[in-house]
Every structure is written in structure tokens, then in C-alpha cells.
Design a protein that fits this description.
Elements (H helix, E strand, L loop, with lengths): L6 H29 L3 H27 L10 H14 L6 H32 L3 H72 L2 H13 L1
Length: 218
């Protein structure tokens, strides 16, 4: 592992990490979009895919300003986030809205990671007075923040509500079945005493025998 001996080398190392992350996302985002069933969510993911491709191009330009070769460094953090997202999205869900909610959560984990990574790299580029690099990274950072806000809006206004409604409908169905069962049980139990009372009214063999015995004793 090569040593990092200066702020410039640290910045280059960070950009290589981000570059690898963005390249991975150009392959991961289409998979999430394909799984999404909400049209607005799918459109948001497709739009961010285009932005991600532009972010890759900006990073390549930033390497040029720093006099460095365009090269990525395996980003273990993004790899883990993508793997976890694929695992969660691949689960079996009783309703498509639930999967869409999971897709949003997975995508926002990605955005938050990138926001932190870009923010750190921008701070270091400012220290080095790499104004063009700062400009390029800030443009990408704003896109990441906008994408995160869009996902939050979709979650709060549509997807999470629909997922909750689907769950409530399932609960109401279960309650209806329980209510019907209880109602049948009450009807059955109330019918039994009436039948017994009816039998007593007509006079059962047992009651006739007791009455006859008392008459003989008198």
C-alpha cells in the first residue's frame, strides 16, 4: 500500500475512491430502477443515473487539473452499501410498495455516503486552492443533495404512505376474519341455551319423573 505524504496525495486518493464509487453506481442504479414499481421513483432513479454519468466525467476532468491519471481505487464502502441494498431489495415482499420503500432507503444510503465523500474532498481541494476542482466537485455535490431531497419527498408523500396503506388493509382483513369468527361463536353459544329452555318447556322425561315422585309422596 502506497503511503500518503501530502494533502495533494490525500485529495487524489479520495477522488480515486469516489471515482470507483460512481462507476459502480452506473451499474447498480439501473438494477434498482428495474425493480421499482412507482413511476416517479423510477424516473428519479433514471435521472440520477444520467447525473452519475456526468459526475464520472467531472472527476475525470478533476484528475486532469491535478495532473493525475484517471484511475479508480476500490471503494469498499460503496461496494458494501450496494451489496446490502441488492440483498434487501431482493427479499420477498407482500406488496410492491414495500419494495419501493426499501429501494428509496437503499438509494439514500448511497447519497449520504457520497455527500460525505464529496464534502471532505471539497474541503481538501479548497486548502490546496484547487478552485477548478472545487467547482467540479461542488456541482456534483449539489446533484447528490438534490437527489436525496427528491427521494425524501417521494418517500414522505407517496411511497411510504402507500406501503402503510397496504399494511393497514391487510390488518383490516385479518380483523374482519376475527370479528366474523367471534360473531359465529356468539351465535352458536346463544342458540344452545334456547334449545335447552325449549326442551324444558315441553317437559323432558327427567322432569316428568321428578313431578310424579312428589305427587306420590303427598
Amino acid at each position: 500500500m502506497a503511503s500518503i505524504d501530502s494533502m495533494n496525495e490525500l485529495l487524489v486518493d479520495e477522488l480515486r475512491d469516489i471515482y470507483d464509487a460512481e462507476k459502480r453506481l452506473t451499474k447498480a442504479i439501473p438494477k434498482l430502477s428495474k425493480k421499482a414499481t412507482n413511476d416517479d421513483l423510477r424516473d428519479a432513479l433514471d435521472q440520477h443515473l444520467q447525473e452519475t454519468e456526468g459526475q464520472v466525467a467531472r472527476l475525470e476532468e478533476a484528475f486532469g487539473h491535478l495532473g493525475e491519471k484517471v484511475r479508480g481505487k476500490p471503494c469498499a464502502g460503496m461496494r458494501g452499501i450496494i451489496e446490502e441494498g441488492n440483498e434487501h431489495v431482493g427479499e420477498d415482499y407482500g406488496d410492491d410498495d414495500l419494495r419501493d420503500a426499501v429501494i428509496i432507503g437503499s438509494a439514500q444510503r448511497v447519497e449520504h455516503y457520497e455527500i460525505a465523500a464529496y464534502g471532505t474532498a471539497i474541503a481538501h481541494a479548497r486548502l490546496l486552492e484547487q478552485d477548478e476542482v472545487v467547482r467540479l466537485l461542488e456541482e456534483s455535490l449539489e446533484e447528490e443533495k438534490a437527489a436525496d431531497r427528491k427521494l425524501t419527498e417521494l418517500a414522505e408523500s407517496v411511497v411510504n404512505l402507500e406501503a402503510a396503506d397496504a399494511e393497514d388493509e391487510g390488518d383490516e382483513g385479518e380483523l374482519a376474519l376475527v370479528g366474523a369468527s367471534v360473531s359465529r361463536g356468539r351465535q352458536s353459544s346463544s342458540a344452545r341455551p334456547r334449545a335447552t329452555a325449549s326442551a324444558r318447556g315441553k317437559g323432558s322425561p327427567a322432569s316428568a319423573g321428578r313431578t310424579g315422585g312428589r305427587s306420590r309422596s303427598r
